[in-house]
Amino acid sequence: MTEVRDAVVLLSGGLDSTTALAMARRDGFACHALTVKYGQLHDVEITAARTVASALGAVEHRVLELDLRPLARSALTSPDIAVPKDRPATEIGAPGDVPATYVPARNTVLLALALAWAESLGARDLFVGVNVLDASGYPDCRPEFVRAFEALAQVATRAGGFRVHAPLIELTKAEIIRAGTALGVDYGLTHSCYDPVDGAACGRCDACHLRRKGFIEAGVPDPTRYVSS
After folding, report:
1. Concatenated DSSP letters for 48-61?
2. pLDDT above 60 for 114
3. Going edge to edge, which strands form the sheet with 30-37?
4. N or C of the chain: less Cβ packing under 10 Å?
5. What is the rounded distance in angstroms from the CA atom of residue 228 to the CA atom of residue 211?
């Protein structure tokens, strides 16, 4: 009998992290999903994460509150910073472009929390849905960051032996959607928008643009409820 290994999966409730969870399940891991309420202005994604964790069979789902607002200013945490809207496709993710929606050190903090839980569980595998293609240009979504954090995990823990899985890191949004669809992911349960209105996606922020573009290029119907719909 094949031994089932535990893994901690960072789950935001968005399209990418949901697909990463589905891939971890496909690979036979018993998934402990971790969602961090870090001070983001909208709770829609937290609700989505709870729904996704249940639908995709996570063995456990924890929502941890850790308010980064006093330290990490961003359009996602600070109401006085505007979420960029209607940016040209050529501008989103362009070299050197780090938009106002970047939350300083967010993925470093989130992966550190996942690492702490994994070490306590006796797990050695972490999954994160970061993506460097069809993305907003965040520095903590690059392969170099994932490799560096994995190296850190070996010396920051009692026993080491950790692996950070980033299965989407070099996939386009369309490829991610096709992969998740093949695994039975219901993307209607997920939420990606940076600036939702009454739970509906704004349709104008970078995340909405990339999500809509991904469904079109994947040839998969977009289940997202947009404000204009």
Report:
1. HHHHHHHHTT-SEE
2. yes
3. 60-65, 30-37, 6-10, 125-127, 163-165
4. N
5. 15
Work out the pLDDT band at 133, boundaries 50, 70, 90.
Answer: confident
Residue 18's φ and ψ, nearest 5 degrees, are: -65, -45
Determine the Cα–Cα distance for residues 98 and 184; give it in Å rounded to an integer: 33
Q: Indicate the pLDDT class of residue 89, thresholds 50, 70 and 90.
A: confident
The single-letter DSSP state of residue 220 is -
From the number of C-beta atoms within 10 Å of its C-beta (0-12, 13-18, 19+), residue 96 rates as exposed
The mean pLDDT value of the chain amounts to: 95
Provide the residue ranges of all domains of the chain, joining segments of one domain with +.
6-218
Question: How far apart, in whole angstroms, are the C-alpha atoms of residue 77 and residue 211?
Answer: 21
The tokens of 199 are what?
Answer: 């739970």
- 155 CB contacts (<8 Å, ≥6 apart)? none
> What does the block give as tokens for 186?
């219901």
Q: What is the pLDDT of residues 193-205, one digit of tens each?
A: 999 999 999 999 9
Residue 172 main-chain phi, psi, to 5 deg: -75, 165
The CA angle 206-209-214, to the nearest 5 degrees, is 125
Instruction: Tally the residues of the chain.
Output: 229
With 0.70 as the threshold, say if the pTM is over it: yes
Q: Is domain 6-218 in CATH 3.40.190.290, yes or no?
A: no
